[in-house]
């Protein structure tokens, strides 16, 4: 009897060793952590490892989360890996973060380390940036710094800006058009009295312009009206509502000073990697005219444009299937 058990043990051991020699399973489910300048930032890597392509989702906000949008982006994981990174003071990130680090240069450094970490963990894999809103600003900061763009196979821009002055002028123009169409006299009067120019963009009160845009329907979509999303967020997401909705308090300097200085327009001519411009055309938060201006400045890049006619600021929410198809087409 003892010899039979010995034989079965040996056979089982040989089977395990044989399995160990096989190629890794195609489905990736890995959690990485980056610690930098006081921030502990998680990166969840999901999807098809055999693709050797990683879509790094650079979320918006500032102070939003990455994994809570997996609900919409999960369809990408059948063909690629998707890395969901929570930025410093965002989502499920933690640590003791000095507010003085909430600057574009620091976010760019963090992003660079995330890219290096992914390339170390998955040798030979290509990294594509899928950037939304505030994440677009971070991506432009990173790609226009040094030789960083050589690390990236392509950038997908989703309703995000390259210039504060260009952005605010576009928001004001969008709101003024809507005020006239909707016959909102109070809004029209205020917006006519407060034009945005390159000279006054750094000092003009931007918040009243932004509030009028919202009141006029600039982004009426709310993910919190979707019951299935809320269940997923509550029970299948590493983020906590308490953390996420208190993050914004840390960004006073960003809103008042740092963002007003943001200007990458003259540097976009140096971008040579492929760029996809994915835009919800109804958006008032970052109007489609910002996308048009972005394309004009990308004189040395191969540019793909996809418009989402039924979408506002988050086309991956309102036209999910079309959005995911467009992303996969770009990465292919």
Automatic annotation (TrEMBL):
Pfam families, from UniProt?
Answer: Abhydrolase_1
Full protein name: AB hydrolase-1 domain-containing protein
Would I find Repeat among this entry's keywords?
A: no
Indicate the family of this protein.
Belongs to the peptidase S33 family.
Q: Which residues form the signal peptide?
A: 1-20
Molecular-function GO terms, alphabetical? peptidase activity
| Keyword terms, alphabetized | Hydrolase, Signal
Q: Which domain of life is it from?
A: Bacteria
The root-end lineage is: Bacteria, Pseudomonadati, Bacteroidota, Cytophagia, Cytophagales
Q: Which residues form the AB hydrolase-1 domain?
A: 54-319
Record's Gene3D superfamilies?
A: alpha/beta hydrolase
């Amino acid at each position: 009897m003892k010899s039979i058990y010995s034989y079965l043990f040996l056979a089982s051991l040989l089977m395990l060793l044989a399995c160990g020699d096989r190629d890794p399973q195609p489905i990736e489910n890995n959690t990485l952590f980056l610690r930098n300048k006081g921030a502990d930032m998680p990166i969840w890597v999901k999807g098809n490892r055999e693709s050797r392509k990683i879509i790094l989702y650079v979320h918006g906000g500032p102070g939003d989360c990455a994994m809570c949008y997996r609900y919409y982006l999960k369809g990408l994981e059948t063909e690629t890996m998707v890395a969901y990174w929570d930025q410093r003071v965002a989502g499920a990130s933690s640590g003791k973060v000095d507010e003085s680090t909430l600057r574009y240069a620091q976010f760019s450094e963090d992003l660079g380390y995330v890219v290096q970490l992914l390339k170390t963990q998955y040798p030979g894999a290509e990294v594509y940036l899928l950037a939304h809103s505030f994440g677009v600003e971070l991506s432009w900061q990173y790609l226009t710094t040094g030789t960083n763009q050589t690390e990236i196979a392509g950038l997908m821009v989703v309703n995000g800006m390259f210039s504060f002055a260009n952005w605010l002028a576009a928001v004001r123009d969008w709101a003024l058009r809507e005020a006239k169409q909707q016959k909102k006299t109070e809004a029209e009067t205020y917006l006519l009295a407060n034009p945005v120019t390159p000279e006054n963009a750094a000092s003009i009160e931007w918040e009243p312009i932004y509030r009028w845009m919202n009141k006029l329907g600039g982004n009426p979509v709310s993910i919190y009206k979707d019951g299935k999303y809320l269940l997923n967020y509550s029970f299948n997401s590493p983020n906590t509502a308490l953390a996420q909705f208190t993050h914004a308090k840390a960004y006073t300097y960003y809103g008042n000073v740092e963002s007003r200085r943001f200007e990458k327009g003259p540097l976009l001519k140096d971008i040579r990697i492929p760029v996809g411009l994915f835009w919800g055309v109804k958006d008032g938060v970052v109007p489609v005219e910002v996308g048009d201006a972005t394309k004009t400045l990308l004189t040395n890049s191969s540019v793909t444009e996809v418009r989402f006619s039924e979408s506002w600021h988050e086309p991956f929410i309102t036209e999910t299937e079309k959005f995911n198809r467009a992303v996969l087409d770009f990465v292919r």
